Amino acid sequence: MARLIHKLTAREVATLGAGKHGDGGNLFLIVSEAGARKWLFIYNLAGKRREAGLGSAGPGQVSLAQARKRAADMRALISEGKDPLAIKAAQEVAKASIPTFGEYALNLVDTIESGFRNAKHRQQWRNTLVTYCKPIWASPIDKVDTAGVLKCLTPIWRKKAETASRLRGRIERVIDAARAQGLFAGANPAIWKGHLAAALPKHDKLARGHHAALPYDDVAAFMARLRASESVSALALEFCILTAARSSEVMNMTWGEVDLEAKVWTVPAKRMKAGREHRVPLSGRAVAILARMAEVRQGGFVFAGRGEGKALSSMAFNMLLRRMQCEVTAHGFRSSFSDWASEVSSFSGETREACLAHTIANKSEAAYRRGDQLEKRRLMLEAWASWCEPKAAGGNVVMLRIK
Asked: How far apart are the C-alpha atoms of 187 and 189, rounded to whole Å?
């Protein structure tokens, strides 16, 4: 008795001539005059003839077994009164509506804009995602998997530990948002605990990526070298060291933020990492630097860069330190200050943290602390300036202390 289905053999699929060859169960092998081979599923639904292509036949394409499986799936749908072609069309529409990881990530950055501390923070998010997520950038958001995430992280995990850690968190945030909108099913492939932690070394086993710092005992000698230059970048870096400020805060400092009479520099909240206004008491040497800059004032920025109305370049400090052949970073001087404050000075850790504009981890304590210790910090920064002052050979180090 002739078989109703599975009539063809693999050899026949490869050798049959032009024509329409049935395998049974609505599955046909179509061979053109030119020898091209494809699978076709032909069925009738609601009195209408429908034809669904199942792919090309041949080595490396849709095999006989695969074609039979696809035909069986279609017969199952028809038995339920469903139209296989209509379902396929709906799936194609749904697939087209799924954004790529890149599209979704950039849209998310725009959507959560109000949650960023400032424009720089938002740009950092955007830059890290665009720069390091190339392996998954064009993938549909629902297809991002662990292997793809690891391709983004692995190249920088050891070289740029801090950046890699932030990138992982940002990828996790993007996919969590997609999950909340029903665009991603299953566990988040970027989650650390119980997942990526097993595939990547912990950061405490890596070079932590801390900013290279100069020992506080060497700062005065460094200042002597720094003062040999009359450049704007040298004066800006010295001011940055004396105020224990962040580089970006100094580089974008404007004259409108300075009160020379009160000897206070007020950094607006939008330019602070913590998003809060920060008053900086100015030591005598810091005021002298501002007086020098006032003599050559150009526009609104205290430390003006090249070009009218431009601030000092973000690379100015790095280039200056490179020319000085000093393997430290400008940010590292905040560590020099912190170490000096902890190990040499008698000022409190609370005052030190206030100078560094660090946030208070304990929320209850933060809620009750109203003042900013301006005058205590003034004494501390004056003592720091004294420590940083180049010493004559054989001179004594003078420390200012408070009881």
From this structure: 6
